[in-house]
Amino acid sequence: MNIRDVAKKAKVSTATVSRVMSGVNIVKPETAERVRKAINALSYVPNLSARTLSKGRSHLFGVVISDITNPFFPDLIYTFNELAEQHKYRAVFANTNYSPARMELCIHSLLEQKVEGIAIMTSEMSPNSILMIAERGIPMVFLNEPGPQKNLTNVVVDYKSGMEQAIDHIVGLGHKRIAFIGGPQDLRSAVLRQSIFLKALKEKGIKLDKRRLTSGNHRVDGGYAAMQRLLEQNPRPTAVMTSNDLTAIGAISAIYEAGLQVPRDISVVGFDDIEMSRAYNPALTTVRLSRVDIATRAFFSLYDACNGAGTTVSKRKVKGAADKMVPTQLILRKSTAAPTS
Amino acid sequence: MNIRDVAKKAKVSTATVSRVMSGVNIVKPETAERVRKAINALSYVPNLSARTLSKGRSHLFGVVISDITNPFFPDLIYTFNELAEQHKYRAVFANTNYSPARMELCIHSLLEQKVEGIAIMTSEMSPNSILMIAERGIPMVFLNEPGPQKNLTNVVVDYKSGMEQAIDHIVGLGHKRIAFIGGPQDLRSAVLRQSIFLKALKEKGIKLDKRRLTSGNHRVDGGYAAMQRLLEQNPRPTAVMTSNDLTAIGAISAIYEAGLQVPRDISVVGFDDIEMSRAYNPALTTVRLSRVDIATRAFFSLYDACNGAGTTVSKRKVKGAADKMVPTQLILRKSTAAPTS
DNA sequence: AGCCTATATGCAATCGCTCCCACTTGCCAA
DNA sequence: TTGGCAAGTGGGAGCGATTGCATATAGGCT
Question: Strand C nucleotides below 7 A of a protein CB?
């Protein structure tokens, strides 16, 4: 079942069938109708490989993520996918599983598929792969990449603002013994969050006792273990800032397990505002980082690069997206309160 | 940059390059080496569309899901993807957003991509689409589809066993006033869970007061609202069984918000055992439904259908998968306890 | 020397579609 | 009448790979 069968059935040439399907060029309405009837009658579905090969365009974007299981990503994927669909693109996803070696495979697979743009939403990197993309002139977009190079754009998150809001909140409540649980120290985004936190703290003239600076793994168990360590201290911290929500949730588990309560005994602040933060018990005070924003900026960055800056509507959107950082914002919920001296 | 460039550079024909890449047929080692050098030198990546078109095989499976944002799916996708990779397949995902109309689009897209098999892991259905798949002879696998038709397999979950374990646990603790919060009544899987729960209850000679049977939407807010309604009753239930974990989490929020505690005042049991259940506060007693199992069975069901039942290893695995239902199992954690009369 | 086989490689048709170009037809102006 | 133009359609090359078949070469055997 191919375009020739349809052409035969509709008594036209394959060229005409093609024209009817793509909707461009002029086809006499009656002819078009006949073709459409034939398509339905045969329940014909065009072959995407053939079309891609022939046109030399895939209308496909690749998105590289670390791990679909990480609650940070589904929202991102959802939004990206939605936008792609709205703009007649498709999106394919590739998991690196946090491994640069696997990232290389991911990129290779995306290149095989002739994607027209690649969004790299991970921290781990394979410089070699990046090179391969670059030398093909394929547009790329990164997340918080430090040194922006030519030929690629960069979605950058305004971590600082959110961190400052969180610090102001904690300090405003009267906390003095503040701890920080960071993420894995080989994860660039985690290191970035930590350093920005420390810097913001310093700028406010507050100094953090080194013993209160520890780290987990950005998962629940890591937060749990880190908090257990903090709880052994005497005096123990009265407020804990964390590098992501899963860490915060792990920390809260540890606090309850030690017979203490949040926020009565210890206040906890998360980062990311994943779906679960609102539903958690107690609902987590956290810094919201909009995955919808990130996905939107990433998508339009690629879309714009592929479809010339000439367009009007998309142009405006992208311009807006490129101008500003992705904002972050403190969301006050139930996991913070004044210390009960 | 295509196979001809490589051939020219290595001073061989395109046929030889192709043979080197696919690894089949005999190529003189030195020639192969020369070709490999050329491939690297040019950093050539083959064009998948051309390959697919030429071979007439896509090595691609499609997976239809409702919504990537639903925590039920990421695990499923992860596992499916992993298995696909291990078996030299790729997997593409399509979101229906719970809409049969969109499902039609999803299927159309998968057919365009010439997928070799389709796993339909959603409840919503578009009979028309199913027909299109069937008439192409493409293997399908469903999740808990009630009437198994020919030409498709069905992964079925043993809801009953898990429900019975949960009921035994609750009843064994001494609970008399048991409530149930179901899912959306237009979602087949939710209706199934509910009816199996009621049936299991009846079989044990326990009867449920109709007023204690209510439903949410399988999301946190629905569980919250449903629980609020239950809390207005006098006497209120002492144990609540729910149709999924998100519902249970919503219910717990409502209970705490009413100034009560879990499990002291009310016990809550979830269903699914999503990642968050373990980390929730209190950790949720729930019925585990292994997404890994589901994905594994779904994958091998398609894989086997596509690669003849003749293979040995896969055959064994698939046979095992097809024989048994996906088991469910009660996981005891902290959200259940004996009622404090 | 002549023949045969096994091994290694090349030629070219093919997959299903798109799109350039050429062609037909009908209409209007010159 | 004729030329020119626009609208509608068809022919067929080409996209980049795979693969059946033909061919070339080397070595072994009689």
Answer: 7-12, 14-20
